[in-house]
Amino acid sequence: MKLTKVIVGVYAANCYILADEKEGKSVVIDPGDDVKDIIDAIDASKTKVEYILLTHGHADHTSAAEEIRNKYNAPIAISREDYNMMKSRELMYGKLIDEVDIYIEDNQVFEFGNIKLKALYTPGHTPGGVSFLGENMVFTGDTLFKRSVGRTDFTGGDFNAIMGSIKNRLMTLPDEMVVFPGHGSKTSIKEEKMYNPFL
């Protein structure tokens, strides 16, 4: 398994490419901008993109999704709640040209090669925010950051909801679980339990 992080766009969002190199399959998580950089990283992995997984609908996490889909013929997956926000052109939300391919359901499993990622609904930053849980890692989008949490002052944000998502879904994961957020550096569930001021 190989994980590549590409920092994209003016908001320095993290786009992740998680690959099973042995099986030649991968997923792209949150392709927000800088399409060429993302394509270069995908091509360097020498894998077939099985899914484009979006943690939420904000433009800095979705803007390159359509181009990545068109190039690699990979389905885009996002929650119905956040896609509805995108369709209504709410502030900060991106816009997909066509209908999405997969509406993510809570606890839905995405398999590629020998890797599985389970979708966990973690709303609050947006109405349909999703985290993706692997064997020893979790991709939290803009729900949980190192020493911080996602902002909730944009349309559809809800502070009580995001705190509930963090405390009831993410903080119940094993302490050693590595957290890969939508911005900034990685952390762990244990570190955030100990040092996150919001907790």
From TrEMBL:
Taxonomic lineage from the root = Bacteria, Bacillati, Bacillota, Clostridia, Eubacteriales
**What's a single GO MF annotation on this record?**
hydrolase activity
InterPro entries from the UniProt entry: MBL_Glyoxalase_II, Metallo-B-lactamas, RibonucZ/Hydroxyglut_hydro
Question: Which domain of life does the UniProt lineage start with?
Answer: Bacteria
Protein name, as recorded: Metallo-hydrolase
Domain Metallo-beta-lactamase, first and last residues per copy: 12-183
Show which residues constitute the signal peptide.
none
Tell me where the transmembrane regions lie.
Answer: none
Instruction: Tell whether Zinc is among the UniProt keywords.
Output: yes
Q: Which Gene3D superfamilies match?
A: Ribonuclease Z/Hydroxyacylglutathione hydrolase-like
Q: Which UniProt keywords apply?
A: Hydrolase, Metal-binding, Zinc
What is the enzyme's class at the highest EC level?
A: hydrolase
